[in-house]
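Q: Sequence in, structure out?
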Amino acid sequence: MNVAMARNLARRAARIVPLALMLLCAATATARAEDLTVSAAASLTNAFGEIGKAYEVAHPGSHVVFNFAASDVLLKQIEQGAPADVFASADEATMDRAAAAAHVDASTRRDFAANTLVLIVPTTGATPARLADLKAESYKHIAIGNPDSVPAGRYARQALSEVGLWDGVQSKLVQAQNVRQALDYVARGEAEAGFVYATDAATQKANVTVALTVPTSTQVRYPIAALKSSPHAAQARAFIDFVLSSSAQATLRQYGFSSTKP
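A: Exactly. Output:
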């Protein structure tokens, strides 16, 4: 090969490589743009993880990206412009606020699951027979989701208030950023008791014991809706339909969720 030919090939390669990189970047950007982002309550982590995989199998080429956190935190992110296509809350109140602010498409809103609030203790700890036992000296730390941002915490505050215990135990409360963190505090023995959902307690069978089912005057219901700002409206609706399907509902039951009551 002479020098002229070598230089010509080098110039062609110099043009081809940037073009290939541009095409690769464009393809990557397109793939990322097609991700379906689902912001869901922390207590849905395990069940939605499995449901998301099943959805991708049923919808070839789709990719679900989950953002799990306390419901109020998720709504705050949405209000601040964080990208999301679907919002699944652990309570009606948070979804009501999202609807009132016109963040969600009200026509897509559905209740898809129900849960139960429970009081848990470490497997090696004392087991209270009633909520009033939490006043005892042996319960120095009680884990609870921050009632200002975590639905499970609000349900717990409501339950404690209804039996006249809220003021008496506030000094013992260890506030968690979400229900899973409250679960971890008890599982690690950093709290002698804690309020979580029954589905969360089931994920730590070896480390925690359910002491009591805590009655709530309001049923723990999970609503889901598509975001008005979603660039993937059709896919968002398809995911909601899938969550309501018999197969996804069976998965939710496997993780301890129940059907919503009228």
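The longest strand covers residues 220-226.
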